[in-house]
Amino acid sequence: MGATGDWLGQRPAVAIVLQSDKWYIHIVFYLSHIYRKKKLMERQAYLEQLIAAQGNQTVKVVTGIRRSGKSYLLNVLYRDYLRGCGVPDSHVIQVALDLTEFAELRDPRKLQRYVESKIIDQDLHYIFIDEIQMAFRVKISEVEESQVAPEDRESLYLTFYDVLNSLNARPNVDVYVTGSNSKMLSEDIATNFRGRRTEIAMHPLSFAEYFKARPQDKLDAWNEYMTFGGLPQVVLAPNDRAKMAVLDELLTKTYLKDVVDRHHIVDVGLLDNVVNVLASCVGSLTNPTKLVNTLKSQDKSSPSIPTFRKFLDYLTASYLFRKAERYDVRGRRYLDYPAKYYMEDVGLRNARLGFREQEETHLMENVIYNELIWRGYKVDVGVVEIRSHKEAKFESRQHEIDFVVNTGKEKIYIQSAFGMNDPVQRARETLPLLRTGDSFRKLVVTNGNQKRWVDDDGISHVGILSFLLDPSLDGFF
């Protein structure tokens, strides 16, 4: 019902919504110099990662959900930095494969020829290629695939990986690309770039970034963030109605359309049902069988279990959802099911559900998960099996730890507890932390702005706003 352009300051973003039998057109047109003037969307942490990787003889790969700011980071923030370092514009070569004017360069052979034609001397040239996954592979040999062993058939084709590796081998080229689907997942990047890559995983604005861009009362900012999330285009929209329109437009016309087109999905309504049920159960332990049964109980069309698993893979590969594996803390092993799914942006989750079902408990847990991923940690869902003596016999029950955070040097256990005023609830939330059988640090995040304090059992407690905004907490991790 409308069209949404890139928000990075080069193209307008347009959202058209139907309301009260009238067409309302909200045009969000942000020029890059306005961003810089207002110091909005600085994305300093990501910019510093790019600067640290400059000239390190690897392909710099910025991955993440579309419209999270990857293009703006590369083409505005990083390019401004290079200008400040004296790099002339003639030595920055930009290609946006999602734009029609560059569509023919999706052929990797033409892409390579184009880039090489822009290299004008032996000085260092910076290559920026947006949405590199849109480049397709082309056959470079007349040999029939059937005559080649299956493990060797990839050698019959030229891919964008081959082009980027070839360009990166030149001494006067520094290569940077953005990507936003399963072709750009970590394992594929590591394999196809032959280990010579630097990956920067980008996300929507964290709450700290959001609060810096939109300074206001902390509680008001928190309520707005939990409602509309941190996608830059949404944050910069002028009012609530415009934010809702942009979220709906992005979800239906960008993210889900990408999934439908990429995987040739015919039953779009079925995909919508899967997205709805996933969005409804963020923060809840679940599995494909349970989710399919939920759809059936709602009298909605439901896929088979294999089809549902396939849709789950599509949605996580697009970065729209993330799966948190379940980890047995005492047994030190991963469990197949159930698991948890979190949405990459809570605003998209709320938009999908028509801004109903805004349970603060689940939304806060989703924000904490996203924050931990934003900080670069591996995050699992913890389970602790506890035996107790009841009515002359022993029974075992599994108790949940919301997050098991792997910092690289140790684990940290985190409970998300919206309220802890009730002694019974406090005991229930802290019991699995006390029974982990190890001495790793433990943290309970509650609603509010309380500074960190430590109880008599050695468990730390902190309010969600302090957890997200207090720089001193960085030392906790």
Overall description:
- Strands 11-10-12-13-14-15-17-16 form an eight-stranded mixed β-sheet. Strands 4-5-8-3-9 form a five-stranded parallel β-sheet, sandwiched between helices. A two-stranded antiparallel ribbon has the order 1-2.
- It has helices at 32-38, 44-53, 70-84, 108-118, 160-168, 186-192, 207-213, 218-228, 232-235, 240-263, 268-280, 288-297, 305-317, 346-352, 360-374, 423-434, 464-469; strands at 13-19, 22-28, 59-63, 92-96, 125-130, 138-139, 157-158, 173-179, 197-201, 321-328, 333-343, 378-390, 393-406, 411-417, 441-446, 453-454, 460-463.
- It is α/β, with parallel strands linked by helices and 477 residues long.
- 38% of the residues lie in helices and 23% in strands.
- The chain is built from 17 helices and 17 strands.
Would you tell me the overall average pLDDT? 86
Which range does the strand content fall in?
A: 15-25%
Question: For the terminal residues, how far apart are their CA atoms?
Answer: 45 Å
Radius of gyration: 24 Å
Strand order in the sheet with the most strands? 11-10-12-13-14-15-17-16
Could you list some keywords that capture this structure?
477 residues, alpha/beta, 8-stranded mixed beta sheet, 5-stranded parallel beta sheet, 23% strand, globular
Question: Which helices and strands, and how do they pair?
Answer:
Layout (H helix, E strand, L loop, with lengths): L12 E7 L2 E7 L3 H7 L5 H10 L5 E5 L6 H15 L7 E5 L11 H11 L6 E6 L7 E2 L17 E2 L1 H9 L4 E7 L6 H7 L4 E5 L5 H7 L4 H11 L3 H4 L4 H24 L4 H13 L7 H10 L7 H13 L3 E8 L4 E11 L2 H7 L7 H15 L3 E13 L2 E14 L4 E7 L5 H12 L6 E6 L6 E2 L5 E4 H6 L8
Parallel strand pairs: 3-8, 3-9, 4-5, 5-8, 10-12, 14-15, 15-17
Antiparallel strand pairs: 1-2, 6-7, 10-11, 12-13, 13-14, 16-17
Helix pairs in contact: 2-3, 4-5, 8-14, 10-14, 11-12
